[in-house]
Design goal:
Number of strands: 8
Shape: globular
Number of helices: 8
Largest sheet: 6 strands, mixed
Strand content: 15-25%
Helix content: 25-40%
Radius of gyration: 17 Å
Order of helices and strands: EHEHHEEEEHHEHEHH
Structural class: alpha/beta
Length: about 250
């Protein structure tokens, strides 16, 4: 990874640095551009770093395998965790519309948010440099690459699994859906209980618009699997993750 520019650091340690990824060499969508403008509007004292092909480390085996397969969403999965591990800061998907500054959250060592009742999202991640949970995610992806075949399983599945295996990690804050994902049309919560799946509230920091323009089929698979996993988990909690990975194409050899 190439160095990021120096950033202002909060007293708690998370730097005022926003990372975003854009791979595939297509232009950022109009929605993405408008969302990035909201980052600048509400967080003018945060530096913004773009990670694209010009800064991509193709010597990393996971990145190289995913890029050669043109699975750019999975390239971005790896890069977001590596960028945060190397530099700290806040990662945002390009379809995140910011409503207010993330500065109150910079007191956390690492934060994420639920995107559905049983699924941790990765469209917003805040972390101090070198946080060990980031390393655990990268190690799991590196292990896939060492086997020579990537599973292309949705990264929220892996993150949710690792967090459940480390329930006592008090350094990781998991915020409710209302914080970052107040609207999720793919949530397993029945529509009759939550019309339009809206949780917008005074606690909301941003809105995920679920655009997925550069994610293609992988995005649709991930979003649909959120709903399916919710149903499977209720039926058989011990096998919910394995089933969701099968929906994503299997674990590889």
């Amino acid at each position: 990874m190439t160095p990021a520019e120096p950033a202002v650091t909060s007293q708690a340690g998370i730097p005022k640095l926003i990372h975003y990824c854009w791979f595939g060499r297509s232009p950022v969508s109009e929605l993405g551009q408008r969302c990035i403008e909201t980052w600048q509007e509400h967080m003018p004292d945060f530096s913004i770093q773009k990670w694209d092909e010009e800064r991509l480390d193709r010597n990393n085996r996971y990145i190289d395998l995913a890029y050669r397969a043109k699975r750019f969403a999975f390239v971005a999965d790896y890069v977001r965790f590596q960028a945060l591990y190397d530099h700290g800061g806040v990662y945002l998907d390009t379809d995140m519309e910011v409503l207010r500054s993330f500065e109150p959250l910079l007191t956390e060592a690492l934060f994420l948010g639920l995107q559905a009742p049983q699924s941790v999202g990765v469209g917003v991640i805040g972390a101090t440099k070198g946080h060990p949970f980031l390393r655990r995610v990268l190690d799991a992806l590196d292990e896939e690459a060492r086997r020579g075949r990537l599973s292309f399983a949705p990264i929220p599945d892996l993150v949710t699994q690792l967090l459940e295996l480390g329930r006592r990690d008090n350094s990781v804050a998991i915020f409710p859906e209302a914080y970052f994902y107040p609207y999720n049309p793919y949530s397993p919560v029945p529509l009759r209980r939550k019309p339009l799946q809206v949780n917008l509230s005074p606690a909301t920091f941003c809105i995920h618009h679920w655009e997925g323009t550069w994610l293609g089929e992988a995005s649709l698979k991930m979003l649909l699997s959120i709903r399916v996993r919710g149903l499977l988990r209720k039926a058989n909690p011990q096998r919910w993750l394995a089933a969701s990975l099968m929906l994503s194409g299997g674990m590889g050899p």
